[in-house]
Design goal:
156 residues; mainly alpha; single chain
Length: 156
């Protein structure tokens, strides 16, 4: 299904990606509250002025993931995952701060780069882009050692 959606997206719109949805929602909220920033700011003026199908794809991922977890009985409401707690402690504020900082840095980097990893890897690979394949390989080449480093066993 993702392959079909990706093919449709590239053929009718362009690269499939999700990070632009944050900016699109920001623009919608600014207009809703009467701000003219969306028309005077060169970055915001290039974003969609209303909900489009890519925004619905993003919302569908959230709702679909929630429903899948609910239906399969795997919904986890634990604020601090066991693996995190075993390595960094069970502090909720520490976990939330780390999650917020990581999410902020990823989104900030995605917007500076003009797109997110899903756009580069998924759409790039679908277009047989060398950059898409190289970036996908680099994600795995860095993610695995980083995870091993972060979740290594504590020295006693």
């Amino acid at each position: 299904m993702l392959g079909l959606l990706n093919t449709f997206a590239v053929a009718t719109y362009g690269a499939l990606g999700a990070s632009r949805n944050y900016v699109a929602v920001d623009g919608f909220l600014l207009r809703l509250f009467g701000s003219s920033l969306t028309s005077t700011n060169s970055y915001l003026s290039g974003m969609p002025s209303q909900a489009d199908w890519l925004l619905m794809v993003g919302l569908g991922m959230i709702v679909g993931g929630f429903l899948a977890a609910l239906i399969t009985g795997t919904l986890n409401t634990r604020a601090v995952p066991r693996l995190w707690a075993s390595r960094f402690g069970a502090s909720k504020p520490k976990r939330f701060a780390a999650a917020f900082a990581g999410g902020f840095l990823m989104l900030f980097g995605a917007r500076i780069a003009g797109g997110c990893t899903s756009g580069l890897v998924l759409s790039g690979a679908a277009q047989l882009s060398i950059a898409g394949f190289l970036f996908g390989a680099s994600i795995f080449a860095t993610a695995m050692p980083t995870a091993r480093f972060l979740y290594r066993k504590k020295a006693s």
